[in-house]
Design a protein that fits this description.
Layout: E1 18-26, E2 32-41, E3 46-50, H1 57-64, E4 72-77, E5 80-81, H2 90-94, E6 97-100, H3 112-123, H4 127-140, H5 156-168, E7 174-178, H6 186-201, E8 205-209, H7 213-219, E9 223-227, E10 230-234
Parallel strand pairs: 3-8, 3-9, 6-7, 7-8
Antiparallel strand pairs: 1-2, 1-4, 4-5, 9-10
Length: about 240
């Protein structure tokens, strides 16, 4: 197993945004999907999660965004032990995490603008408070001319970029993405990847689950590799495009 300065099992909690200590996960009475995972991610780091289908990449992301509970071991986010969080505390932690889901989960009855603004509306913000910021964000991801379009009229790459905009509109500390380039052509995949790079430069800790080994190899970023539910850390290779 390779070591990387951004991943350290010995880092103290106040240095890490994510820390797993011997974490396992099973659904119901089924077999363990993940077992004995130990790693830590520091603020502002950028990593991929790789591995074959069924290796547990999406499950690992679920544990980070509080979409599933570990069966064993301990998880800390932003220095807080998830097992000790109360029901009232969990939403505040979730708001610090942006997620681009594999199925995107865009709402077809809302425009691109309203989809992107949805997390702000749920938080209780008024349209007058976020209108200009959301418009600026959509322009930044290349959808400035499409902000009033409905999702059904958007191309695949446009939907992906809209999902990214929605995930970052709250300016999260952690940005997670599950196969964000899986359904687009190579040119669009590179454009989407570069959006994540820029968001990382702005301060977000980025964790991307992907099957795209070519993108991982060319990125120069480290990977958390899952196989059979177990994890190894792969050092970065190549240079970022």
């Amino acid at each position: 197993m390779s070591r990387n300065p951004d991943i350290s099992a010995a880092s103290s909690a106040n240095e890490d945004v994510v820390r797993f200590d011997n974490v396992s996960l099973r659904y119901g009475r089924g077999p363990e999907v993940l077992r004995g995972l130990s790693f830590a991610l520091r603020p502002g780091s950028f990593h991929f999660i790789t591995g074959p289908s069924g290796a547990g990449k999406s499950s690992l992301l679920k544990l980070v965004y509080l979409g599933a509970r570990a069966s064993g071991g301990g998880i800390r986010l932003f220095g807080q032990d998830l097992a000790r969080l109360t029901a009232d505390q969990r939403p505040a932690v979730r708001r610090r995490i942006g997620v681009v889901f594999q199925d995107l989960l865009l709402l077809d009855h809302l425009s691109a603008f309203d989809n992107a603004a949805l997390p702000l509306r749920i938080r209780g913000a008024r349209a007058s408070e976020y209108r200009s910021d959301v418009a600026e964000l959509l322009a930044w991801v290349g959808l400035g001319a499409r902000m009033h379009a409905m999702p059904a009229t958007l191309a695949g790459g446009e939907k992906q970029r809209l999902a990214i905009a929605r995930a970052v509109v709250n300016r999260p500390d952690i940005l997670l993405a599950d196969e964000p380039t899986g359904n687009v052509d190579p040119d669009m995949a590179l454009r989407i990847y570069r959006l994540f790079v820029e968001l990382n430069r702005l301060g977000a800790t980025v964790l991307i689950a992907t099957h795209d080994q070519d993108m991982v190899a060319r990125s120069g970023r480290p990977a958390l590799h899952l196989d059979g539910g177990a994890l190894t850390v792969r050092a970065p290779q190549g240079a970022a495009p």
